[in-house]
Design goal:
By secondary structure, the protein is α+β, with helices and mostly antiparallel strands. The chain has a 17-stranded mixed sheet that branches.
Length: about 270
């Protein structure tokens, strides 16, 4: 499946039961060129109160607490496969239970209350400002504002890795390079931890970017975010003092193909 440019392998299985060898195989399956290729893997199983339990593994085989685009894909899968009744499943993620709404290939997530953006942290790099802003949306993010003219040619492959391992963010971070591209409209490019490369989109990244940009007085909700894939997301939220509530992320989720894996798919 693909959500806004992030692509995933989807399995109906309990990710909590994966062994170290299984995780190693997930990483091998996510290799592009040598195997199926994906940004990560989704494992859907039965949860409490007819919910869907979702485990998300990054392309390196590491378990992550949340992936917004992965959760949107899981929601569409659960509805299309009738794993739940109706079109509004609740998915139990490592971050929190996430309510979704599926309307065809458009899927919205209603997120829990978000913490306010963190303090500015000093950064360096050609074409970058002196500081970035930390924001947590299920997983840690670093938001870096750049000029709209420079964003398309920004060397994300070079600039991303040192920021992804910023010493003031001990668990690492997804790094979002953000430019104002119109009224309440942002362009976002993201270097993702766990994938260790730029991806075509990052759902939690566009939420972090929109909230931080709003706090900086650049946009107001709802915010349109265009990603590297060309796909546009809508981020809506409310602010009351330090609180950020009612955040809703909307974008596409597509089922691309189904297949049977062979042992060659995870051969080193």
């Amino acid at each position: 499946m693909a959500g806004g440019g992030n692509d995933f392998l989807v399995f109906e299985a309990d990710g909590r039961a994966l062994t170290d060898e299984d995780r190693r195989r997930v990483a091998l399956l996510c290799r592009r060129g040598l195997s199926v290729g994906a940004d990560g893997a989704l494992f859907l199983s039965g949860g409490e109160d007819s919910r869907i339990h979702l485990d998300y593994f990054n392309a390196d085989g590491g378990l992550a607490s949340f992936c917004a685009n992965g959760t949107r894909c899981a929601a569409r899968y659960a509805v299309s496969r009738r794993l739940v009744s109706g079109n509004a499943p609740v998915l139990e993620t490592g971050w929190a239970p996430i309510a979704a709404r599926v309307d065809g290939d458009s899927v919205s997530l209603s997120l829990p209350p978000l913490p306010k953006p963190g303090d500015r942290v000093a950064i360096s790099g050609d074409g970058l400002p002196a500081t970035g802003i930390a924001m947590h949306v299920g997983v840690p993010h670093l938001v870096v504002f750049v000029d709209a003219a420079s964003l398309p040619s920004l060397d994300v492959a070079r600039l991303g890795p040192p920021l992804r391992r910023h010493p003031l963010m001990p668990h690492g971070a997804n790094v979002n390079f953000v430019a104002l591209s119109g009224r309440d409209h942002l362009a976002v490019r993201t270097f993702e931890r766990g994938v260790e490369a730029e991806t075509l989109a990052c759902g939690s990244g566009v939420v972090a970017s929109a909230v931080v940009a709003s706090r900086e007085g650049l946009v107001s909700s709802p915010v349109t975010c265009e990603t590297r894939s060309g796909t546009r997301f809508t981020v809506a939220f409310s602010e009351d003092g330090d609180a950020v509530s009612g955040a809703v992320l909307t974008g596409d989720a597509r089922e691309i193909f189904t297949a049977e894996l062979t042992e060659d798919a995870w051969r080193p």
